[in-house]
Design a protein that fits this description.
This protein is mainly alpha-helical. The protein has helices at residues 7-24, 39-44, 53-61, 65-71, 73-94, 105-124. Helix 3 (53-61) packs antiparallel against helix 4. The radius of gyration is 17 Å and the shape is globular. The chain starts with 6 loop residues before the first helix and ends with a helix.
């Protein structure tokens, strides 16, 4: 049985809303909360490209824009693009169409190189 094209994006939105609701009342700047830890950081001790994303999201939801910038600049700058992709996926699904974004090889390479450079910069400086 085939799922409706909107099922997956609506599921992602629902899970995201539930996570955001929990995060809104849970300060990740304080320890002792049920929040996921970065597996890359647990294994290597270094920050991954997304480390600080949970704190950044919390700070954005509470209007602390400077703190969000300090938590993870690259992820903050990439967030509007990710949200645009999610919105497009959802809208296409609601229209009954399946949609998958496609990136050229150079775009994929640029994203990976940017993430690697960001990881090195964050951990060395």
């Amino acid at each position: 049985m085939a799922r409706h094209p909107a099922a997956a994006p609506l599921g992602v939105l629902t899970a995201g809303a539930a996570g955001a609701g929990y995060l809104y009342v849970t300060d990740p700047h304080e320890s002792g909360h049920l929040l996921p830890r970065c597996p890359f950081r647990l294994v290597t001790g270094f920050l991954c490209p997304a480390c600080g994303g949970t704190r950044m999201t919390y700070d954005l939801m509470h209007g602390h824009y400077e703190a969000a910038w300090l938590d993870n600049r690259l992820l903050l700058l990439a967030s509007p693009f990710a949200l645009a992709l999610l919105l497009r996926w959802t809208l296409e699904g609601l229209r009954g169409r399946r949609w998958r974004p496609s990136l050229s090889r150079p775009a994929q390479a640029a994203i990976l190189l940017t993430a690697a450079a960001w990881t090195l910069t964050r951990n060395l400086f």
